[in-house]
Specification:
By secondary structure, the chain is of the alpha+beta class. About 50% of the residues lie in helices and about 10% in strands. Bound molecules: glutathione.
């Protein structure tokens, strides 16, 4: 089936940015973006909840050639889907039984699950919850887990190869490099190997397009913004 139109619901520099990056990789600028004012709590309104009951960006809306509209609500699934939908871009080992495909899927999901959990706990308890609800022990636990467990695994890979799955850029880099940026924003992933990795991926034109709006992101959720009371974790 052919894709007729792609639309991304997005908030600058959040997890929707990795899907925006992937979209620029595969279709250039030929997709629509709607910004969602997360700090105003728009994602908890009925209109947005009808798109994504998990009240999150990204949402990727796919209009198929026949006119049917489908929505995806998980960023790793979107990135994997786009890599497979545009195989001519060479951003994923072909589906099927191969060590390369197994390793690629493993890193894509390591970024979107294990790494995301650690980083989001740090962010939620340092910058999102109202001060009275923050838990310093949670921050300490996940900072330590990330530094002791995730970072060495990534560093080992990047010492051997320029990209997370070898000598070629793949969609898994959209996930993992985004998380490395996120980590560095919180003082993690400070070793030279990570700086070099980010310097390599950020030379990609699709990366520059995807993060052109990153300055609109402000890490701290002010306590007088609707999100401070609406956020469910
Ligand atoms: N599993 C989701 C998580 C997405 C997510 O947590 N998005 C955050 C921004 S990074 C969000 O929109 N949060 C708004 C909220 O929960 O109110 C994915 O990776 O697609």
């Amino acid at each position: 089936m052919k894709i007729a139109h792609l639309k991304l619901y997005h908030h600058p520099a959040t997890r929707s940015a990795r899907v925006k990056w992937m979209l620029h990789e595969v279709v250039g600028d030929a997709f629509e973006v709607e910004k969602v004012a997360l700090y105003d709590g728009v994602q908890y309104g009925a209109d947005f909840l009808a798109l994504n009951p998990n009240h999150c960006v990204p949402v990727l809306e796919i209009t198929w050639e026949g006119g049917e509209v489908q929505r995806m609500i998980e960023s790793a699934a979107m990135v994997a889907f786009l890599a497979d939908a545009y195989p001519e871009k060479g951003l994923a080992p072909p589906p099927g039984a191969s060590p390369q495909r197994a390793d690629y899927l493993q890193m894509l999901h390591f970024g979107a699950t294990s790494m995301d959990v650690m980083l989001s706990q740090v962010r939620i308890h340092e910058h999102m919850l109202p001060a009275a609800q923050r838990d310093a022990r949670t921050v300490a636990r996940y900072r330590s887990k990330f530094a002791q467990e995730a970072e060495p695994q990534l560093a080992r890979r990047l010492e051997e190869n320029p990209y997370i799955c070898g000598d070629a850029f793949t969609a898994a880099d959209c996930l993992v490099a985004y998380d490395v940026f996120w980590a560095r924003g919180y003082g993690l992933c400070r070793d030279e190997i990570f700086r070099r990795y980010l310097s390599t991926v950020s030379k990609r034109p699709a990366f520059a397009s995807a993060f052109a709006d990153a300055r609109e992101f402000s890490p701290v959720v002010p306590e007088d913004k609707p999100l401070a009371t609406l956020f469910t974790g």
